[in-house]
């Protein structure tokens, strides 16, 4: 049975049946092409979360924008840090200052818009990097245009619940405001775990049928790559900076596979006793926690060294977990749900010991727990 998960960057809430992930995906508003009557203001947060992923995106038959624009072109972007698939805050600020020089706020004839656009669609005559969009209706071009018009991050960013389907081959995106399905991802059979890139540009799913981690473009909802894993996967988690995805390998002897999101390759397989069902990243991002139902053990992995540093055995299978932080953001306690126990164990992170168990109130007559 899957667990329903609603995730944001700080906490996880686990409910019964199904796997849910609450993520942020950017959608450019489909606005009129008429010029604005008041000067637009270029929004940095929209640029960082919506425009920069376009500069990093790979399109069939084209080099990525970043491939040329970190070298000798006048629009000089910041080089990506080693091992990173995205720019950090300081780099994004510098990119923003460079790119906005190619924009007249509110003017859809700005160089940023017409240079990579096909001539017949209103673009200029030549772009050394080729014409990336054949129409002004292209979703990526619309996103750039929305930014030029003055779109704000808070107005253009929407939350989506990701509902996986372990008995099928599709995944639904749900608008939590309307409770309606607004998107569908297809062709991922027996999908289990889900995670989203911090900037909302990609989604990651564990594919039990193919034993792969599948990467999905958040705009097109198409699978762009399948990464072979060391065995059959269950749930997954992602580092706070989005550079690593940690995949629980339930197939014996058990492991946590580490995926580098920049190279989109499996770079390591960390042994963990028992088949691993769940992986979590602590709120401070310093540790990865692996839980085994069969092995009845919790394994704590240092996120920097990617080596196990300690483990704790239980008398029952380890299932979902939640975390409590100290004032400095470090992990204080872990609350661990255990198989067939109507409650949870409390683990002190510093002493590495179970300190108590909390039994929940009994269920009403005729009610059965999940």
Give a structural overview:
Helix 1 (44-56) crosses helix 3 (89-99). The model is unreliable at 1-18 and 26-37 (pLDDT under 50). Strands 3-4-5-6 form a four-stranded antiparallel sheet. The protein has a four-stranded antiparallel sheet with strand order 7-8-9-10, with no helix packed on it. The chain has helices at 44-56, 65-69, 89-99, 111-114, 139-149, 153-156, and strands spanning 3-7, 12-16, 20-26, 157-163, 170-175, 180-186, 191-196, 202-207, 212-217, 223-228, 233-238, 244-249, 255-260, 265-271, 276-281, 287-292, 297-302, 307-313, 318-325, 331-338, 343-348, 353-359. Among the domains are: 1-28 and 156-228, PH-domain like, CATH 2.30.29; 44-150, no CATH class. The protein is elongated, with a radius of gyration of 23 Å. The chain is mainly beta and 370 residues long.
């Amino acid at each position: 049975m899957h667990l329903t998960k609603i995730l944001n960057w700080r906490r996880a809430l686990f409910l019964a049946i199904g796997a849910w992930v609450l993520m942020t995906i950017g959608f450019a508003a489909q606005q009129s092409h008429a010029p604005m009557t008041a000067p637009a203001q270029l929004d940095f947060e929209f640029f960082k979360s919506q425009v920069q992923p376009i500069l990093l995106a790979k399109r069939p038959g084209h080099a990525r924008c970043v491939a040329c624009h970190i070298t000798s072109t006048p629009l000089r972007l910041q080089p990506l840090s080693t091992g990173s698939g995205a720019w950090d805050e300081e780099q994004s600020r510098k990119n923003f200052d460079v790119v906005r020089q190619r924009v007249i706020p509110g003017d859809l004839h700005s160089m940023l818009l017409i240079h990579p656009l096909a001539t017949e669609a209103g673009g200029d005559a030549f772009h050394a990097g080729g014409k990336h969009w054949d129409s002004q209706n292209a979703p990526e071009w619309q996103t750039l245009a929305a930014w030029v018009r003055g779109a704000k991050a808070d107005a253009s960013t929407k939350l989506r619940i990701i509902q996986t389907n372990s008995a099928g081959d599709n995944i639904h995106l749900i608008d939590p405001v309307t409770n309606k399905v607004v998107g569908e991802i297809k062709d991922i059979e027996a999908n289990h775990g889900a995670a989203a890139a911090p900037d909302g540009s990609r989604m990651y799913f564990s594919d039990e049928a193919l034993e792969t981690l599948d990467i999905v473009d958040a705009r097109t909802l198409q699978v762009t790559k399948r990464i072979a894993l060391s065995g059959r996967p269950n749930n997954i988690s992602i580092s706070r900076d989005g550079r690593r995805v940690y995949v629980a390998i339930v197939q014996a002897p058990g492991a946590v596979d580490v995926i580098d999101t920049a190279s989109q390759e499996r770079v390591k397989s960390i042994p963990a006793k028992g088949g691993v069902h769940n992986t979590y990243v602590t709120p401070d991002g310093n540790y990865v926690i692996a839980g085994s139902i069969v092995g009845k053990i919790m394994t704590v992995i240092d996120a920097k060294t990617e080596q196990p540093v300690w483990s704790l055995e239980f008398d029952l299978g380890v299932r979902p977990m939640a975390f409590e932080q100290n004032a400095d953001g470090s992990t204080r306690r872990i609350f661990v749900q255990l198989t067939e126990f109507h409650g949870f164990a409390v683990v002190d992170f510093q002493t590495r010991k179970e300190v108590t168990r909390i039994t929940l109130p009994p269920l009403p007559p005729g009610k059965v727990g999940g």
